[in-house]
Structures are given as C-alpha cells and as structure tokens.
Amino acid sequence: MAKQKKRKQKLLYRPVGILLGMAGGAVASTLFAKAWAAVGDGDAPDAMDEEREWKEILLAAAIQGAIFAVVKAAVDRSGAVGVRRLTGTWPG
Length: 92
Prior knowledge:
By secondary structure, the chain is mainly alpha-helical. It has helices at 2-39, 54-87. It has one domain (13-85). It is elongated. Keywords: Membrane, Transmembrane, Transmembrane helix.
C-alpha cells in the first residue's frame, strides 16, 4: 500500500517538476546572459564558432554549466520542500 502511495505522489509531482524545470531553465538562461555580459565580449560563443578561441568557448561553457547546475539544484530542492509542506511527505 505504501508503495502505491509513493508511486501516486511521484506521478502527481511530475507535472510540477516539469513546470519548475522550465521556469528554472529560463532563469538560468537569463542569469548566464547577464554573467557573460559582465565577463565576455559580445554574445556568448558557441562551440562551433570558428572565430572564437578555445579559452573563450570553454570559459563560457564552464560558467553556463555552473549556473545551470546551481539553478537546477535550487529549483529541485525548493519544489521538494514545497511539496513536503503541502502534503507532509517528501516527493520521490
């Protein structure tokens, strides 16, 4: 019985997690654009930009990865805490 309850909670949390993930992605993109504007020159480079140097491409990737990882962790944790406050149980 407890296993069914856990499965049901996971299914109910899934749409919430998807929406939080989309919102987190938008926030992370905005934060990365602002961070790159502070440290880089122009738009952030793409790995396939032939005119850009390795160090610039790798720096952009490192900054972007760090920002996305921190935002994802914050969003995931906040969502789980919110679900626990509403339902009394930890999702997943």
